Amino acid sequence: MTRTWQISDVTEAARARIATARLAAAYGVPPVERARLTASLGAQLRSCLTKGGTWRLTLETGTASRAGARDGEEVLHAVVTPSPEAAAAGQPPWRVTVPCPEAVADVGVGAVADDPAELAQALLGADEDTTLVLERLAEQEGLVDFHREELQQTNQGVVALHAELDAAGRAQREAFAAERKARTEAENARRRLTFLADASAVLTASLDHHEIVRRLPELLVPEYAASVDVWLFDQDGDRPGPAHAAAAVVAARTGRPQYAAAHPGGLPGVDDQPPSALAPDRPLLCIPLPTRQAPLGVVTLSPPGERWDPDDAVMLVELTRRASIAIDHAQRYQHNRDIAETLQRALLTELPAPPGLTLAARYLPATHGLNIGGDWYDAFRQPDGGVIAVVGDVTGHGLRAAVMMSQLRTALRAYAVDGGSPGQLLTRLHTFLHHLQPDLFATAVIARFHPDDPTMTWAAAGHPPPVLRTPDGGVRTLDAKPGAMLGIPLRQEIADHTVPMAPGSTLALYTDGLVERRARGIDPGIARLAEALGSFGPAELDADLEGSADGILRPMLSDSERDDDVCLLLCHLSGTD
User: What's this model's pTM, rounded to 2 decimal places?
Assistant: First the structure.
């Protein structure tokens, strides 16, 4: 389809513009494109009328060839050809192309009236599309403004949301940091408590205060201290001399921990002091070893780094306090042990040497704990020429047991002066102990030898049975029924027992520390003692009873932890003078 209009005045220009708008509408050109087409065409026609001459408008439909159009798309071409005068002046043709989505084969435009009023009305009708487009553009601009306002509000909401998210993120990070800090502090506290418990167990496991002092630096270096110096005061109460830091002297005098450094330490419960002249560049923490009376000494530490953490300092003060208690207990234990052992050994008198009877005794105090003091042995002559041999064991340990043992020994010797058999002597000792110390008990076995009697009389009160070796090498346990323990709230008469005692016989009296083991009881130990006593020949016992006693102790104590005293008394009948 091709349409052509000659334009030389306003009326022809109006008709051409109106016809173009109608054709564009008929061909389905979108309103916006129609408005643009008619507006551009109107502006071009006004320019042409201004220049004068006759111009030609051509409308033609065809297939798309302009840039940006889809291949095969129907389009409407508008071309304004200039007048001969304008063409001579170099005026180029004006061209425009719009899409036609609803292209048709041919359409009629209809006549345009010559009446100016009708032409004006038709011209207004031709601008209806433009008005519609403008109205729609106004609506679109309102919608754009509305959406722009919504977008602005949305942007403001997004900004506020980002601010809230940032605040929430900061709060979350702060919460995470606080949680990490709390977890770290809890782990450090647990580490300190674990170390304090383990170190306390190590320090209290020993009853040797020298060992405790030696192990304290091993526990603290290098994690909690670079160096540790433990100063124990002399027993007479002397304080550290000039060789020790001034802060250590102040700690000894005041009983309070002192911190010597160029800057205050800020440690809880610790007083600040000027730096030590002995180590001016190194901070020192001087902690006294407190007791109920006065400090035992001072522990001086230097930090593993530049300074201590306050919580570590609190832990060190508490550990030093526990170490002080352990050292004080160890010193008291050693003091009491020395007294008890000295008293006990002083009461274990020399054995007599009666004719025809050889005696050998061994006493070994316990090596673990304050378990000395209860076991004892004795041998002495009676006025009628008989010899009393006794081995006993007082319940309990320590100084009190040693004192009770000495009283029983003295009472037995006093009762034996008046005569009496072993059973009678034990009966009297039972009454004596019951009235003297109702809360203490004892066991004992007494054997009586007489040169004119071929038998041996013995009696026991709650004590392990004697073991007898005959001259032919046979060994048996004298397991006749013994009496009850001495001192129990029970009236008893302890019976005597007799057994032939030929020359060459050996009797072993002992305490339970020799034969009893916690894991196996006492019976296997008595059997081992019988085996050890039977392993000697008659010549060995006659020649060297002391060496035989040692030969018995070695195998018997090879598996012993020595947590109780050990007492052994061998009585060998070699003959009469």
Answer: 0.51
